[in-house]
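QA checklist item 7 of 12: single-chain prediction sanity check.
[x] sequence parsed
[x] length recorded as 310
[x] structure emitted
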Amino acid sequence: MVRSTNNSNLTGFILLGFSDHPQLQKVLFVVVLILYLLTILGNTTIILVSRLEPKLHMPMYFFLSHLSFLDLCFTSSVIPQLLVNLWDPMKTITYGGCVVQLYVSLALGSTECVLLAVMSYDRYVAVCRPLHHTVLMHPRLCMALESMAWLSGVATTLVQSTLTLQLPFCGHRQVDHFICEVPVLIKLACVDTTFNEAELFVAGVLFLIVPVSFILVSYGYIAQAVLRIKSATGRQKAFGTCSSHLMVVIVFYGTIIFMYLQPAKRRSKDQGKFVSLFYTVVTPMLNPLIYTLRNKEVKGALKNILGKIL
């Protein structure tokens, strides 16, 4: 029994990915590669602009630069292996590679869940208590909130990933996905996984439902404050400071909640793959695009920096 359960540990896994759609694999390779390059370009630009432009040395852009750094790390932990699997017919990943991908991607994804909630608090203070914004959101508090987000992400991956890897796979090597994720590895186990699914659901509530509830409450107060503004220009400006973050929240949490709060056995064969593909490839690319196109301060800072360079 021990020998059979450890077989996957010795030989690694086969990530089937989109093998059922061979005609799509080369197309997906090109699309994913282009989106990955755009993700690197866009998020690197956000980080550099936030650091180089003195006007953007504010809490909002401090958190935004960390969000871009998270997206860069997250996509880099997933997409290179995905590109290899889309091109290579073998589609193998070593056990060590799967473990690293599982721990790193879950830590970064969980950190982003908390960070988006932290950013909503910053928007609440900026709109509802604008005169006290710089006092309340001082650099020390921003660093503490950022550290809290990272520590919570590390803590959840240490618990969830470790519990998942303790499951016996009984030599099962074929992972019907393109990434080593907790839900797909739970389905691979050859024992009762009720406890693991319950733990996954609890973690989903803590890192998805709780942050989303906090964000909704924050934006409820923001909406009340905006409606009390008599000037149409003032309302538009207040809404403009929050609209980008709100769009990112909707795109990110919508796909993640659909993926993680649905029982593993109820997902269709391809549903989880395409939802995962969206939040691992498309969402990180959209974040800098949303903040750049809808934020006058970022566009202005980008023009200033390009003007100096040229």
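[x] summary fact logged: The chain has twelve helices and three strands.
[ ] second reviewer sign-off
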